[in-house]
């Protein structure tokens, strides 16, 4: 494959594209501004403790899952541990368990809401049936939104008669379906659903696209995994594969300029080094594009991409904590959502996701210690002055620790290490302006055919990552990387 490909950014999307193309035979150079791979799915180390930066729950690793297909193609198997109980979901009035087994999960929900048995059973039946139909498209993985004749033909060729059943749902929100099943006013049930959606879809049931919500609520049943060491293993494996297949990997290289000269792309990094390529894949936050491209190139970008550049997303506060679990009543579970402050809704410490290493995971911490990553959504305007920044960081940190102590007695006194990852920290570590993370909310206005394509509008210039459809999370980022690799190679690859 006689193509020189420059990939900028070693997040999951960039690494997926780079490793697939290198395995396929392309000449690939990958530049990463950090000293670590993985971006928001990377890691950092403090003393003897290893902390996942953001992503913690292994998804897409079941047979036929997006990541499983990538690692199988690369011949890079991962050590994974399937979860039968995926997570606990702690709410003000009840605690739920998300079970992998669908029937067990529905039975568990009916036990919590026996007066709504019929509605809950019919709701989940519809969710699972819808997700099953949508997943039949994931084998061929057509591009959405299609922007070329070839992509439209591939999409049409992927459709089967059963997909007609999805059409009535295309412009519906999950809120509409909850109403159909008489569950719109069952607040505890709805809050539980919203807690799941904010972490995967970046929005709640009122606004989320129903088709995407159905997949998001069902995908944990397909397979959720604990990855020994952490999800950063995804990045490490793909980085290894890239180099083994002749690719060049350069860390601590921040691209400051991309220019189009004749039929080639020329990149310049912060050290003044230059890199020439026939094709470019950009896996950096799209908000950085004005700092990298000249105005005459910016105006040639596709309209959704241009509009996305000026659209803010959520930011986050993340706590990185190590605890001596022997001071607790029992080790912490691997994954737990906590939503105890209903006044704060789905953000600002009112809801957060808490991931802990298994006690026996010595790749993460010494014996007797668990490392924990805890993150909450926050709005960027709350952090826009120095005075606000420090106050909000302390306020949200304390709010989350207090909530944990209500669930885990003696939590505070078990802490042996504590630090925060506030928006400026995310900006420094991952290059995300103002700490914007997670991608755009998957509403009807910004998903499916209204989403941002991996095609930028510039010749041989592609974008991937959580701002590109299908959005946030490692699965979404990897999918956009797969589309970029397919577009360059002209082959399906996986």
From TrEMBL:
Residues 12-488 form the Amine oxidase domain. It comes from the Bacteria. InterPro entries: Amino_oxidase, CrtISO-like, FAD/NAD-bd_sf. It holds the Pfam family Amino_oxidase. GO terms for molecular function: oxidoreductase activity. GO terms for biological process: carotenoid metabolic process. This is FAD-dependent oxidoreductase.
């Amino acid at each position: 494959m006689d193509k020189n490909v420059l990939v900028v950014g070693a997040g999951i999307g960039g690494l997926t594209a780079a490793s697939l193309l290198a395995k396929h035979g392309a000449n690939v150079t990958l530049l990463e501004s950090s000293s670590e791979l993985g971006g928001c799915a990377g890691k950092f180390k403090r003393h003897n403790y290893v902390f996942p930066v953001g992503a913690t729950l292994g998804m897409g690793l079941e047979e036929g899952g997006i990541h499983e297909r990538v690692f199988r193609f690369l011949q890079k198997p991962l050590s994974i541990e399937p979860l039968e109980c995926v997570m606990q979901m702690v709410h003000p009035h009840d605690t739920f368990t998300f079970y992998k087994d669908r029937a067990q999960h529905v039975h568990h929900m009916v036990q919590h809401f026996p007066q709504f048995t019929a509605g809950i059973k019919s709701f989940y039946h519809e969710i699972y049936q819808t997700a099953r139909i949508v997943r039949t498209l994931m084998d061929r993985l057509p591009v959405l939104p299609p922007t070329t004749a070839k992509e439209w033909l591939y999409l049409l060729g992927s459709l089967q008669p059963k997909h007609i059943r999805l059409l009535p749902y295309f412009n519906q929100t999950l809120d509409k379906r909850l109403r159909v099943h008489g569950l719109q006013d069952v607040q505890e049930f709805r809050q539980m659903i919203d807690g799941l959606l904010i972490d995967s879809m970046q929005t709640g049931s009122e606004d989320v696209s129903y088709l995407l919500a159905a997949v998001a609520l069902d995908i944990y049943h397909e397979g959720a995994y604990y990855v020994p060491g952490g999800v950063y293993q995804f990045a490490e494996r793909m980085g290894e594969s890239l180099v083994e297949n002749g690719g060049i990997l350069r860390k601590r290289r921040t691209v400051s300029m991309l220019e189009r000269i004749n039929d080639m792309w020329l990149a310049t990094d912060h050290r003044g080094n230059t890199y020439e390529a026939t094709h470019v894949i950009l896996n950096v936050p799209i908000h950085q594009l004005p700092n990298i491209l000249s105005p005459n190139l910016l105006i040639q970008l596709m309209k959704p991409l241009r509009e996305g550049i000026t659209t803010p997303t959520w930011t986050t506060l993340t706590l990185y904590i190590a605890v001596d679990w022997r001071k607790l009543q029992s080790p912490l579970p691997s994954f737990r959502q906590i939503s105890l402050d209903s006044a704060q809704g789905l953000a600002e410490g009112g809801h957060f996701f808490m991931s802990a290493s298994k006690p026996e995971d010595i790749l993460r911490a010494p014996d007797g210690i668990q490392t924990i990553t805890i993150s909450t959504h926050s709005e960027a305007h709350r952090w826009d002055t120095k005075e606000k920044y420090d106050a909000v960081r302390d306020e949200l940190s304390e709010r989350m620790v207090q909530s944990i102590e209500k669930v885990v007695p003696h939590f505070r006194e078990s802490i042996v290490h504590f630090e925060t990852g506030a928006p400026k920290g995310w900006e420094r570590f991952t290059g995300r302006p103002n700490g914007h993370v997670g991608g755009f909310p998957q509403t009807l206005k910004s998903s499916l055919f209204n989403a941002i394509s991996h095609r930028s509008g510039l010749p041989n210039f592609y974008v991937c990552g959580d701002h590109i459809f299908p959005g946030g999370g490692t699965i979404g980022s990897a999918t956009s990387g797969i589309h970029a690799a397919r577009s360059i190679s002209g082959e399906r690859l996986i």
